[in-house]
Each structure stands twice: as C-alpha cells, then as structure tokens.
Design a protein that fits this description.
single chain, 157 residues, mainly alpha, 0% strand, elongated, disordered C terminus
Length: 157
C-alpha cells in the first residue's frame, strides 16, 4: 500500500462518518459519540498527513504552494472542530456549522485526491510512497494515543 491508498482509506471513512453525524438529532449520545470519534479521526489524520506526506512535498518547489494551501485547510478544519466541540449540540447552529465543516472538508478531500495526488506522484517515487504510508500509519497511531489522553477530545460515557 502506498500513501495515496492509505490516505484515501481515511478520506472514505471521514465521508462516511460525516454522513452518519448528519443523520443524528439534537444533543444525543449517538451524536456525541460519533462527533468525538470523528474529531479524533480528522485531527489525527491531518497531523499524520502533515508530518509525513506534506512534510515531504513542502521540500519540492513545484508543490510548495499547494502544500501550504492544504495545510491551511487542515487548520480551518481543526478550528471548526474546536468550535463545534464548544457549541450546544442541540442548537440549530451546531448542525449548520457541521454542514459548513462537511462542505469544506469534502472540498479539501476532493482537492487532495484530484489535484495533490497526481502532482505528488510526479515528485515522490513509488518506493518512497510505500514507506510514507508506513510512517503515516505510525504517526497517526501516536497522534490518536496522544489525543485520547488530552481533555480536548470529548469523552462519551
């Protein structure tokens, strides 16, 4: 498996998780659980992606602008997740903000798969992409472990 396949697995999972959250209502245990799991997934994915995939791409002149753009979108997603985490889940504003997040993150995912991946494949060898996938997996596991121990990830009873 290479980095592109590995990232795509997470993208598909994130799309599915966002769809499930959109089906929830109010401040329910299900919404709390799904959002908590989604936040952990999205944050750990973005951090691992930046530490492996984008850390390599930033070194290439041809991909620096796109890399900076993608990392900025990660920050925007993180900020929206933090805002949602602080909001009343039963409010109409919560689901509206989540819809914004879903729209923005879906755009980001599509952009990565359609624009960034083809560009990166010209700059990163197949062997490097395979090694990068292994490193991504390690980094994501570390990120998730670290995040589970921090209070910013909402625990659900």
């Amino acid at each position: 498996m290479d980095i592109y396949e590995r990232i795509k697995i997470d993208h598909d999972l994130q799309r599915e998780m966002m769809d499930k959250i959109m089906e929830t209502h109010g401040d329910s245990d299900e919404r709390r659980r799904l959002f908590s799991e989604f936040k952990l997934e999205a944050d750990s994915h973005a951090n691992a992606e930046e530490q492996t995939f984008y850390a390599d791409l930033i070194d290439h002149h041809d991909s620096q602008e796109q890399t900076r753009h993608s990392v900025a979108e990660h920050k925007e997603t993180c900020d929206l997740l933090d805002e949602l985490d602080e909001m009343d889940m039963s409010s109409a504003g919560w689901i509206k903000k989540f819809e914004t997040l879903k729209h923005d993150l879906t755009h980001h995912i599509d952009e990565e798969e359609e624009d960034v991946f083809p560009m990166a494949k010209k700059l990163i060898s197949g062997k490097e992409a395979e090694e990068m996938a292994k490193e991504f997996e390690k980094r994501k596991a570390i990120e998730q472990k670290d995040m589970c121990g921090k209070s910013h990830v909402r625990k659900v009873a």
